[in-house]
Amino acid sequence: MTKIDYIDPFINVSAVQARMAEIEEPKMLSLTDINAATNSYDGDVYSDLYKDVYGIRPRTAAFKSVEEFDADFKLLISQLNEQQAEEEIRQAANLEKFASRVRETMELCNCDAERAVEIIADAEGELDSYQWYGYERLEWHFNLKYGSIKTLMKENVQ
User: Fold this and answer.
1) Count of the separate structural domains present in the chain
2) Is residue 79 part of a domain?
3) Are 57 and 51 in contact (CB under 8 A)?
4) CA angle, residues 54, 136, 76, in degrees to nearest 5
5) Is 98 among the domain residues?
6) pLDDT tens, position by position, for the chain (158 residues)?
7) Which of 15, 68, 79, 115 sits CB 3.0–4.6 Å from 111 for a disulfide?
8) Global pTM value
9) Residue 63 φ/ψ, nearest 5 degrees
10) Are the C-beta atoms of residues 65 and 58 closer than 8 Å to each other?
11) Are 102 and 94 in contact (CB under 8 A)?
């Protein structure tokens, strides 16, 4: 609706209201409307993707058309793919740092890889959690890909 800054006391208000009703803006589609229009759960998936990319759910997602929704949906997918690629690079670098730390600990303590990992867990204040949850706790702590320490231990930290 258009904004009226000044109202003349001699204007016919009902005529102005009728004219404003004629100028009404097009209805925006909510995520629920998108679900109904596409006969799917695309709006719900959009909300999940949005949360994965930005960390919060969309408050007011409104689209002029299903085509605009599709374009935004594809943009979210590409942003999520970029974030995942960056995360894989970070995790690979973190794994190399961890492997180097395990090798250094093995040399310093003259121990095997299992004991070196236990010493590192203790040094990080994660020994109790490590003993309870295993490698997964350290993978979370050091931001490593799930299963990477197990693979590293099979390769014997070379």
Assistant:
1) 1
2) no
3) yes
4) 20
5) yes
6) 455 555 666 666 666 666 666 666 667 888 888 888 888 888 889 999 999 999 999 888 888 888 888 999 999 999 999 999 999 999 999 999 999 999 999 999 999 999 999 999 999 999 999 999 999 999 999 999 999 999 998 887 55
7) 115
8) 0.67
9) -130, 145
10) no
11) no
Query: What gap in Å lies between CA 92 and CA 132, rounded to an integer?
Result: 25
- Output the six-digit token pair for 42: 């695309």
Q: Are 44 and 35 in contact (CB under 8 A)?
A: yes
Burial class (CB within 10 angstroms; exposed 0-12, middle 13-18, buried 19+) of 63: buried
* Tokens of residue 48, six digits: 């999940």
Is the residue at 95 inside a domain? yes
Domain that holds residue 127: 90-154
How far apart, in whole angstroms, are the C-alpha atoms of residue 143 and residue 149? 11
Q: Which two tokens stand for residue 81?
A: 């793919």
